[in-house]
Write a structure and sequence with these properties.
The complex is a heterodimer of chains A (625) and B (643).
Chain A: H1 2-17, E1 35-38, E2 44-50, E3 55-58, E4 67-70, E5 75-82, E6 89-97, E7 111-120, E8 125-128, E9 131-132, E10 138-139, E11 141-143, E12 159-161, E13 167-169, H2 178-182, E14 194-195, E15 211-212, E16 222-225, E17 230-234, E18 243-248, E19 254-259, E20 266-273, E21 276-285, E22 297-300, H3 304-307, H4 310-316, E23 320-321, E24 325-331, E25 335-340, E26 357-358, H5 360-374, H6 382-390, E27 400-405, E28 410-416, E29 440-448, E30 451-458, E31 479-483, E32 495-496, E33 505-511, E34 516-522, E35 536-541, E36 564-567, E37 572-584, E38 590-601, E39 608-614, E40 619-624
Parallel strand pairs in A: 1-40, 3-11, 23-26
Antiparallel strand pairs in A: 2-35, 3-4, 5-6, 6-7, 7-8, 7-11, 9-10, 12-13, 13-16, 14-15, 16-17, 18-19, 19-20, 20-21, 21-22, 24-25, 25-27, 27-28, 29-30, 30-31, 31-32, 33-34, 34-35, 36-37, 37-38, 37-39, 39-40
Helix pairs in contact in A: 5-6
Chain B: H1 2-24, H2 28-56, H3 61-88, H4 90-97, E1 104-105, E2 114-115, H5 120-127, H6 132-152, H7 161-179, H8 191-206, H9 210-216, H10 218-237, H11 246-267, H12 311-321, H13 334-337, H14 385-394, H15 403-411, H16 414-423, H17 434-445, H18 454-460, H19 468-477, E3 505-507, E4 542-544, H20 566-574, H21 577-580, H22 599-610
Antiparallel strand pairs in B: 1-2, 3-4
Helix pairs in contact in B: 2-3, 2-6, 3-4, 3-7, 3-8, 5-6, 7-8, 7-11, 8-10, 9-10, 10-11, 12-16, 12-17, 14-17, 19-22
The chains are: A mainly beta (625), B mainly alpha (643).
Chain lengths: 625, 643
């Protein structure tokens, strides 16, 4: 009898809801059938370095004696050099600072901070080592000295670290005038001409004595000595451009450089002899060239006047034009993967850009989009597709990761960002998908139990076109892993690592050993627990305990229509079918409603008891440990 | 028993009957999604028609009238689509459809990339330009640009009940703060026609829920229907832009609807924005009045973890604020330039710089209600209140203070160390650090919020009467005088509604000295020299739009303190800013046309601004400062310093 009653009650509920499931604001929390457990994450976080708070050891600068100063802020790239000599020590980390400020003790412009890590076995945690450098500085954190060695840098963003421990820093934000960088004393106080080899000691063979306007001494790759926290030289022979990242091959002769520009170029430098990057030949990539000697590359003469305006010279000579290249990494010396982050509205149909050629990676992107939107392959030639891209018919909302094959010197799109919209017949977007990979920025590799994964970090250019769900007003950039064994990856193969971002966006992810990843936190929000501010380097340890198979959602083998599977590593709940879901707290109060989802990010739920209801009114108890 | 069963069966049958009946009419959100799609189609068609009419322009009045009439259709079609479209994807609308007609910098760019404005507001200005013939080509180009954007655009597929209620309430804020002020109709001034279209369409959609709301609360459903109809009727009877009584509109219709739609949303147990996992937003959805003290969630503008926004942190911050220990010479405190009794300004054109010899570069802005901003300083150089403090510490003209020395100074003061420990109990590491100092200071500064001015109380209905000049002044401010198109309600600063996410700056062309002859533009480049990223020509002489709340106690005015009285300020605007005064201001964002306000109107606007004063409970100073143990000359330091 009771049974009939409750059926009628349920029916009544269904009537009131009228198709869209209404989840009552409160439920009776004792009413449960089944319990799903979310075990503790195998990963643990530890704060290592806080910009604007931790103190760096400085060198004597601008007349101030060597001493201490609060570190600069806005962390971006992390270069890491392992220490194989000293037992228990992991190695040296150097963090790039993107914030451009005048500072009389650290130096004007951007900057870098170096520190060394070791593992404390008893506490199973990391420790910053107290070091004494050869210049006499002693402490835990060290400002990398640019001012007294090579002259200031602008805005340190990306960089290169070689297997042998050499390191370069990049600064993508191109500067165009002394007045601009002076910013009435808030940017760079000294705007006098810069004489290479005279103004500062680190000269450069073949260019010593050459005069640069002060702003022209910015935007070169700069080699730094990570162990001594000192800049070595500005790499004038690699050209001045909006460089964001690069790769050095194991031959210690060949360098690839990626420009964050639209159009942005791909550069290559080949040193005359191994380990000496001060002499050699600079090239820029032109995919449609087939020179008997230089192949797909255009030679750039070693002339400072040419090198200081490399982007425009290269494109004038017909270089391949990419759309904002960001960070890249090599795999097995045969392939290089680079983030091409994309740009919403662009065209290469005026001025100097008319002389360059549109990158095949953009052609790939345009054709993929065409296929999805029109439901048929692009009917024309690649040339026609390139022409459409050039004319601004390709709004590159999502970007992609591209692959440069070093054996063929060909580039292609390796994985396109998404989500893409449905066929053009409908003017609607697909429902906001589970995976929504856009505007890749940071890239590295990691190995989990012998399997290679690409780590990709987003830096969203916008929220439109499903980069964020409808009505969201702020971006939420995510970190993904991609199994490198997948032959033709799409964004559906990406594994989101929510655990990497405790409420903040991250950048600079780098594996420092098989167990630990270092990252930088950016754009936090007021709800975060301290000290998750926007200038923070922290570690995530425990990767050696992670079974890569466990990163994926477990298969559905229960046969039930609606089942929940927790994934403790990614802090996600996976549903067997897309559904409307409500989460209730232990008191039975509704705290979250998600519509039409297959995956729920529960990284913000503290340990405790919850209830999850689906659209049919089925409720499951859910315990976060 | 049998009787029992029969009745149950009867009930079930009737339920099943009812259910099948209900199921045959689609759910409200499904209907509304279809309508939204159709409205988009309509809008696109109207723009296409506009293009045709633009092609037909031949200098005759007939073709021009045909164009203008079609443009009115475009506006109505846009406004019918707008309320949901804006809510679902406001960035698209802002960038391509209805953004301000001013150049801006590309977001997340890799260099200085200027985005030229496009969309309806640019078209609006062109269509109502002096000569259509002169701008014919440009107009056609803009229409085609808009059309191609709309052709490519895809609307989000799923619309849920929550979207409808959220969008409707946000649309009410938009309608009142931007719509009826003429913000997005710079040329046509078709603001009231627009508002009617918006209200009509929302009423139509909300009607889909009428039965459901009625079941929960009959009176609520009735009130909503009645208020929509009455508001539309009122606007239909009052189409004169200059004469519209915006106060009446606000109190009679906008606020009641704003409240009742929330009650309906809650009554229907539809999920609230806080349940969707979004990041914290300034607009507090649970507010029931646009002039409520909690209409904006001030914590959304801070990066301080919420657990630290306690009474203890605020009180520690207040101590630091008044303590000259923070400066190198132990004589300057925050309160040196931000005096509570002077509305947290110093009432000087430019504050005295450290060393007493010169002044700092700009006027000291009030800190009252300053938290409601995305960016800080008059040139917008800091991204948060917390970051803002660091600039004051390092400035040679201000505290000139090495942070490490400051930490040493404070650490030597045991009372301070104890206060920091109490305020930040969760911090296990060194609790007295640069970040906690910033947290404490900005916890205090963000507590300086006043929402109980004479004006606020009247709008909310807490008081029943008000000086009629205040109401007239408010109506002018939001209408004819166009003040409200930059000083947005209810903060009356440059934080842009309806989401209040972004701070605006404007180029006004303020002269160096208004009394000098010949007049010279003030040399300060403002925003253009604030950060390397915004070094753009159109940001030269651009300054943050500050609030007009508390102006009665914060003279003198403008970034350089050039104007001593509000009358002088009003005269400057009445003449059309620097350009109107004959100065060469290439990127002036203030319209250079004269406002044609008469003396009485100016005095009414000033009465309104004077009615926005509220410093109650905000001006107290600490009675003592933390003492050093033992004998220390610093124990005699003056509360607030010696500047």
């Amino acid at each position: 009898m009771k049974k009939i009653y409750s059926t009628i009650g349920l029916l009544g509920l269904a009537v009131a809801s009228q198709a869209q499931s209404a989840f009552p604001a409160k439920i009776d929390p004792t009413w449960d059938v089944k319990t799903v457990w979310m075990p503790k994450s195998p990963l643990t976080n530890q704060v290592i370095f806080v910009g604007g708070t931790d103190v760096v050891q400085t060198t004597a600068t601008y007349g101030n004696p060597a001493g201490q100063e609060v570190a600069k802020q806005w962390h971006d790239y992390i270069g890491f050099v392992p220490d194989k000599a000293e037992s228990g020590h992991i190695g040296w980390a150097v963090v790039n600072h993107e914030m451009t400020t005048a500072n009389p003790k650290i130096g004007d412009g951007g900057g870098m901070t170096m520190f060394k890590l070791k593992r404390n076995k008893e506490k199973d945690s990391l420790e910053v080592v107290t070091q004494k450098l050869t210049d006499g500085r002693e402490g835990k954190f060290f400002n990398v000295d640019f001012v007294n060695t090579v002259g200031e840098t602008g805005m340190n963003c990306g960089g290169i670290t070689t297997t042998d421990g050499r390191m370069w820093t990049a600064e993508e934000w191109m500067q165009s005038s002394n007045k601009g960088i002076f910013a009435e004393g808030k940017g760079f106080v000294d705007t006098t001409d810069f004489v290479i080899g005279t103004t500062k000691p680190a000269g450069f063979p073949a260019f010593n004595g050459k005069v640069l306007k002060r702003f022209e001494n910015l935007n070169w790759m700069v080699e730094v000595n990570p162990k001594e926290a000192k800049a070595v030289r500005k790499q004038y022979n690699w050209g001045r451009a909006g460089w964001e990242g690069g790769v050095v091959l194991a031959d210690n002769k060949t360098v690839f450089l990626f420009e964050d520009g639209s159009p942005g170029i791909l550069g290559k430098f080949v040193a005359t002899s191994a380990n000496d990057f001060t002499s050699g030949q600079m090239y820029v990539y032109k995919h449609d060239r087939n020179d008997a000697i230089d192949g797909n590359w255009i030679k750039i003469e070693n002339n400072l006047d040419t090198l200081k305006v490399l982007n425009s010279v290269a494109i004038k000579r017909g270089a391949t034009m990419f759309n904002r290249l960001e960070w890249g990494h090599k795999l097995n010396e045969t392939k290089i993967y680079i983030c091409e982050t994309g740009r919403d509205a662009f065209n290469y149909n005026s001025g100097n850009a008319l002389k360059g050629v549109v990158s095949p990676t953009l052609v790939d992107g345009y054709k993929t989009r065409y296929q999805i939107e029109k439901g048929m392959p692009f009917p024309g030639t690649d040339m026609a597709a390139a022409d459409s891209v050039r004319k601004g018919k390709f709004a590159d909302y999502y970007g992609r990761v591209i692959e440069l094959d070093l054996t063929t010197n060909k580039v292609r799109s390796y994985i396109e960002g998404g989500p893409l919209s449905t066929a053009s017949a409908s003017s609607s977007l697909v429902a906001y998908p589970t995976i929504h990979f856009s505007n890749p920025d940071g890239l590295d590799f990691m190995t989990l139990k012998g399997k290679r994964y690409m780590i990709i970090q987003e830096d969203l250019n916008g929220i439109t076109y499903n980069r964020m769900p409808a009505t969201y007003t702020k971006t939420n950039c995510e970190t993904y892993l991609l199994d490198m064994e997948i032959a033709k990856p799409t964004f559906n193969d990406l594994i989101r690592i929510s655990a990497c971002a405790p409420g903040a966006e991250v950048t600079g992810a780098v594996m420092i050993d098989d167990n630990t990843m270092l990252l930088n936190s950016q754009h936090p929000d007021g709800g975060n627990t301290p000290p998750y501010n926007n200038s923070l380097t922290y570690s995530i340890s425990g990767w050696s305990k992670v079974n890569p198979l466990g990163l994926f959602s477990p298969a559905n083998n229960s046969g039930e229509a609606f089942t929940i599977y927790p994934n403790p590593t990614t802090r996600e709940l996976h549903l067997t079918k897309a559904s409307d879901i409500a989460i209730y707290n232990a008191k039975g109060e509704r705290i979250r409603v998600e519509r039409d989802v297959k995956v729920i990010n529960v990284s913000d739920l503290t340990a405790g008891i919850y209830f999850i209801s689906n659209a049919e009114g089925k409720t499951t108890k859910f315990v976060v440990e | 028993m049998l009787k029992y069963l029969t009745s149950i069966i009867l009930i079930s049958v009737s339920f099943i009957f009812y259910y099948s009946f209900v199921a045959s009419t689609p759910a409200p959100h499904v209907t509304i999604a279809q309508r939204h799609e159709a409205r988009f189609g309509n809008f696109k068609k109207s723009v296409q028609k506009l293009e045709e009419k633009c092609h037909l322009l031949n200098g005759t009045a007939t073709t021009e009238i045909a164009l203008i009439n079609t443009y009115r259709e475009v506006r109505i079609a846009f406004k019918q689509w707008e309320y949901l479209a804006e809510h679902l994807d406001y960035i698209f609308i802002k960038d391509y459809v209805n953004g301000a007609p001013l150049p801006k910098l590309e977001r997340k760019s890799f260099g200085l990339n200027i985005q030229q404005p496009q969309g309806l507001q640019v078209i609006d200005e062109l269509i109502f330009a002096d000569s259509l013939q002169l701008v014919h080509k440009e107009l056609l180009g803009e229409i085609i640009k808009l059309q191609s954007q709309l052709e490519q655009y895809k609307t989000p597929q799923k619309i849920y009940d929550k979207h409808v209620f959220e969008a409707a309430r946000i649309a009410l804020i938009r309608l009142f703060t931007l719509g009826v002020t003429g913000f997005d109709t710079p040329g046509s001034v078709a603001a009231i026609e627009d508002a009617i279209a918006v209200l009509t369409i929302i009423q139509e959609d909300v009607k889909c829920y009428e039965t459901a709301i009625s079941k929960k609360d009959k009176n609520l459903a009735k009130a909503i229907g009645k208020d929509f109809s009455a508001a539309i009727a009122y606007l239909n009877g009052n189409k004169d832009f200059e004469k519209l009584d915006r106060m009446y509109l606000l109190k009679q219709f906008v606020n009641p609807l704003f409240k009742n739609l929330l009650l309906a949303h809650q009554a229907l147990q539809i999920e609230l924005p806080s349940e969707s996992g979004q990041k914290k937003a300034p607009f507090n959805y649970l507010a029931t009045n646009i002039f409520d003290k909690d209409f904006l969630d001030y914590t959304a503008y801070l990066t301080i973890p919420n657990q630290f926004l306690t009474h203890k942190t605020v009180s520690l911050g207040r101590m630091l604020f008044f303590d000259p220990l923070l400066s190198a010479d132990n004589e300057m405190s925050c309160a040196s330039c931000h005096l509570p009794e002077k509305g947290f300004t110093d009432q000087l054109a430019k504050s005295t710089a450290a060393g007493h010899k010169t002044t700092v570069d700009r006027n000291s802005p009030t800190l009252l209600n300053c938290v409601y901003s995305e960016r800080f300083f008059l040139d917008l150089r800091a991204n948060s209140l917390e970051e803002q403090t660091a600039h004051v510490f390092s400035s040679a003209n201000e505290f000139n203070m090495d942070l490490l020395k400051l930490l040493k100074k404070l650490e030597a003061n045991e009372e301070y160390v104890a206060l920091f420990k109490e305020a930040f109990p969760e911090i296990k590491q060194k609790v007295l650090n640069n970040q906690t100092i910033q947290f404490a200071l900005s916890a205090y500064v963000s507590s300086l919020r006043g929402h109980n001015s004479v004006f606020d109380k009247y709008v909310r209905g807490d008081t029943k009467t008000i000086d009629p000049d205040v109401v007239s002044g408010f109506n002018l401010f939001m209408g004819k005088a166009a003040c409200g198109t930059c000083h947005f309600a209810p903060t009356f600063n440059g934080t842009v509604p309806p989401l209040y996410l972004e701070s605006e700056s404007e180029v006004l062309g303020v002269p160096e000295n208004p009394k000098a002859k010949p007049l010279r533009l003030d040399a300060d480049k403002g925003r253009a020299i604030a950060t390397l990223r915004e070094n753009a020509p159109f940001y030269e002489h651009s300054f943050k739009t500050v609030s007009v709340r508390n102006v009665s106690v914060t003279k003198p005015y403008m970034h350089n303190g050039a104007y001593q009285t509000l009358e002088e300020v009003m005269d400057f605007y009445n003449q059309g800013g620097g350009k109107g005064l004959g100065l060469d201001v290439p990127y002036q964002t203030l319209a250079e046309d004269k406002l044609n306000l008469n003396k009485n109107e100016i005095s009414q606007i000033i009465s309104f601004m004077n009615a926005l004063t509220d410093t109650t409970g905000l001006t107290s100073k600490p009675s003592r400062l933390p003492q050093f143990t033992g004998k220390n000359v610093l124990n005699n330091r003056k509360i607030g310093g010696n500047y």
